[in-house]
Amino acid sequence: xxxxxxxxxxxxxxxxxxxxxxxxxxxxxxxxxxxxxxxxxxxxxxxxxxxxxxxxxxxxxxxxxxxxxxxxxxxxxxxxxxxxxxxxxxxxxxxxxxxxxxxxxxxxxxxxxxxxxxxxxxxxxxxxxxxx
Length: 132
Description:
Layout: E1 11-15, H1 19-31, E2 35-39, H2 42-49, E3 56-59, E4 62-63, E5 66-67, H3 69-77, E6 82-86, H4 91-97, E7 103-105, H5 110-127
């Protein structure tokens, strides 16, 4: 499968509590040239994210019964591009709380997720240096 090179060399954190879903995402992202780190709990993901070593994050909303809102709040406050990858039907809530953050509903075609993540990163890059 051919993917665009927009993720080549980018560091992506995948926050997902379902092992097989995380593995699929990791494979898709690595095939696109990204360097991937996975975290399966909110605590683990927050610690890893705060290291600041990531260009973007793919974030599941529900992690072992906890919402990932605290991590999403941290990412938004620190201007880290991220997309939600969730099976939860809370798109309207997410749109209000995180305007401009894309939501990919599970199951999501890997190519769609990759394009969405690339777009989020390009918007982030394009927005820096522009006035609102």
